[in-house]
Amino acid sequence: MQLGSITFRDFEVEAGIDFGGRQRLAVHRLPNGTRIVDVLGPDPANIIFGGVFSGQDAVTRAQELDALRKSGAQVILSWNSFQYAVILSEFSADFQARNWVPYRAACTVVEDDTPVAESGDSDLTPSALASAASALTAAAIPGCVLNAAVLPLSPDGTPPGRSDDLLAEIAARIEICTSALNAASVALGQDANGALLQVEEALSQLSALMVVRAYGGVGVITRGAAGNA
To answer: Which residue pairs from 224-228 have beta carbons closer than 8 angstroms and sit at least 24 positions apart in sequence?
Structure first.
């Protein structure tokens, strides 16, 4: 963590860093119990942290932080991916020895400069997303049309006869499709719209395949892309 020109080290920030705040609201309560709420904007709380200055320069470092408090200067506070423009508003130290000075500090936020990740951001690289989308395209049986409406029942109302070869093919396709969907659920970002559409198509195909299997494998399967019967 860094505050202005001061970089904290070792045990100097040991109890965590408290941050957050509230949303300022103006609540108007009407006689009939209705509420009208005006949103006035975020109100960040003080950022609070503490630790122990240790070593030969413990007192000097505590004095540097106290001098920053006295100056009232606006500085940058940053740690991890967080960044704020702040004023050190509170500082208290407990001198226990010349090489051991516990302290607590609070910073008043002037501006929150922390970058905000957009909802569509993903840790995946474009190439990883493209690979996942390609895998789905291959597994979602492109060009395959399954029409459950052509699955007739026998005159006595029982399912038609089985076709073992077709059932084997259906089972294999269900396995491929299911594996691709499982991989997609892990690999794809939340806003990968094109790939998610492919997921929906694969689910539709998977559902139709299961219907055909339930009817004993009798149905119509055409592979438009491959041109095979």
So the answer is: 224/142, 224/143, 224/144, 224/145, 225/142, 225/143, 226/143
- pTM for the model: 0.49
> Whole domain around residue 40: which residue ranges?
2-112
Rounded to an integer, what distance in angstroms lies between the CA atom of residue 62 and that of residue 69? Answer: 11
Q: 3-class DSSP state for residue 163?
A: coil
Annotate 90-132 with DSSP letters as a single string.
Answer: EEEE--SBTTEEEEEEEEEEEEE-PPPPPTT--SS-HHHHHHH
Residue 162 has, within 13 A of its CA and on its CB side, a CA count of 8
Which residue type, as a one-letter code, is found at position 85?
A
Q: What DSSP state is assigned to residue 167?
A: H
pLDDT digits (tens, 9 = 90+) for 5-62: 999 988 899 878 999 999 999 999 988 889 999 999 999 999 999 999 999 999 999 9
Q: At what angle do helices 126-139 and 164-187 cross, to 10 degrees?
A: 160
For residue 71, being part of any structural domain is answered with yes
Same domain? 78 vs 134: no
Taking only the tens place, the pLDDT of each residue in 58-76 is 999 999 999 999 999 999 9
pLDDT digits (tens, 9 = 90+) for 90-120: 999 999 999 999 999 999 999 999 887 655 4
